[in-house]
Amino acid sequence: MVAQSITAEGMTQVASKLDDDALKQPPSLTALVNLLADDMAQVNETIMARMTSDVPLIPQLAGHLITSGGKRMRPLMTLAGARIASPNTTSCSVAAIKLATAVEFIHSATLLHDDVIDESNMRRGQDTANALWGNDASVLVGDFLFARAFELMVESGNIDVLGTLSSASARITEAEIKQMTVAGNPDTRLEDYLDVIEGKTAILFAAAAASGARISGADEQITQAMHMYGLNLGLAFQIMDDALDYTADSAQMGKNAGDDFLDQKITMPVILAYQKANDEERGFWHRTIGDGNFAAEDFAKAQSILSHHKAIEASLEAATSYANKAKAALAIFDAPDQAELAQALAETAAFAAFRRT
After folding, report:
1. TM spans, by residue (predicted)?
2. Structural domains of the chain sorted by starting position, each given as residue range(s) with its CATH number in brackets
3. How many Å apart are CA 243 and CA 260, to the nearest integer?
């Protein structure tokens, strides 16, 4: 495994340097976005071209989500993996562009399906597709995007990346089903939560980054390094997102604050607070998240309990820990022509664990 080949000294030096850099100014995606801007423009063109259909509702509904201002972090992972594996090139191959597009389609399909399952009415600050066109249309267009994604993967001509992204798609579905089985159970083990978010979120980050490297001819060490980077980045990103559901407002999040609470989702802050709860607090969690019996002031009370047990702070620490693991995975990219992109990826990891409140 690549993670075992990175020395403790190298991990410490990378994390220390990047943490020092993060203190100078808030981390952002700007460096990575700028480095990959030309490639991303090709991805966006491919998205629009492959989203077309003789059925007008399909591009209309899909475009509503895909063009709504998402960060495009997952296709950026594919492009970054492709570029860092072939640092002497100034642009990604056509195959890498197609893979990045496929990754965005997979992600968008899962979002369409998630919003139906969660009965969400806001995403990225606007009405969800299911709120506008209904559940049936959203599910079917999600299926269309999955099909387009697999067409693009086949066209890439690499059986290894087809296997990687196909397996990731299966893991995402498994994780969504497991999340349904633990919903409403505040005594869920932390290990089960981590398994859910690894499959639901982190595995696509990992598969995207690794596939980008592989399509550029990377060896196993580089491919696994990008896999570990993407996996830990995704874990940090999802934990932070779950913590923000209890701390940020709707405008900051682009969705309704408190949705996870009202949807009876089991996330790290709730698990940590439940583990430290007294009998009265456990009764509260069972009545609300367990039974779905909500009163007007329950979200405020949930925030108070989380604050009392420092569950948000502990979740933020966990997100930071995973972000540092993502940074450490970049230690093998020490060649001069890899430095700028590696630094941008490190800042992206810091961004994933940055509290935006």
Report:
1. none
2. 2-352 (1.10.600.10)
3. 10
